Amino acid sequence: MPFLTEKLSPEQYRHSLEALFEIVAPAAVITNQAFVEEVKRARKNQTPRTILLSNQIHPARDPVLQALPGHQVPPEQTVLLQHSSGTTGLQKGVALSHTAVFNQLRSYTKALRLNDQDVIVSWLPLYHDMGLIAGFILPILTRIPLVLMSPFDWVRAPHRLMQATTRYHGTLTWLPNFAYNFCAQKIRASQMEGVDLTSLRAVINCSEPMHWGSHQMFLERFQPYGLRPEALGTCYAMAETVFAVTQGVSMHL
User: For residues 119 and 144, is the Cβ–Cβ distance under 8 A?
Assistant: First the structure.
């Protein structure tokens, strides 16, 4: 779930968190020390029963984690709830099974022509299906290297995406449409010193209405640094289908 930030109303956020706890009835919540009080404030009747701190858990040997019911479920049962943004009401949870997630990974890696030379670079938040699936679960389960940065760091310094791509020879990244405009308009020439984007074989537009003009602006801004026109791609996705429904890109190798 998203953190409480300055862009969110604290009261509305806490009400949403409280309602989600009541509907989902989680056995445990994993959070960090700074967020514990928010979780405690939102729970009623001791739901969730357990609050775990992210820097203190070791899944392989933690008896509390091993005892949670999610560790003993068959493939057709739910592995995660992917919640909507909640912009038009209470966040709605899409129940995704282990099988559905693996089916998505199999079909999407084929569409991406994923290979052992790929490196995924992402700043996307993990509470969004694009960030969670394409920018986290996909690279972890396919053992593709992942360079992951904080969305808060990216929005303050978008050039770090370009620098990370250069440093780690990134080949795949996903961006919502606004990010194409944001990068093209906010990144200064002085911040692009030493940047080389020739390793990118796909920069994929997804999660928002896509605009040709945004792609053109992005290409014109970064083509001098090695970005190829054929690297610009598009994807249509929905949380209800785990992630990608369609993937259109030349996937230059």
Answer: yes
Contact 149, 160 (CB under 8 A): yes
CATH class of 99-248: alpha beta
- C-alpha dist (Å) from residue 8 to 25, 86, 159, 182: 23, 12, 25, 21
Task: Please tell me the pTM assigned to this model.
Answer: 0.85
Q: How far apart are CA 147 and CA 136, in angstroms?
A: 10
Sort residue 84 into left (φ over 0), alpha (ψ -120 to 50) or beta.
beta
Question: For the chain, where do the domains classified as CATH 3.40.50.980 start and end?
Answer: 99-248
Written in H, E and C, the secondary structure of 182-219 is HHHHHCCHHHHCCCCCCCCCEEEECCCCCCHHHHHHHH
pLDDT at 85 over 60: no
Which residue type sits at 224? P
**Is the CB of residue 47 less than 8 Å from the CB of residue 25?**
yes
Per-residue pLDDT band at 90 (split at 50, 70, 90): low
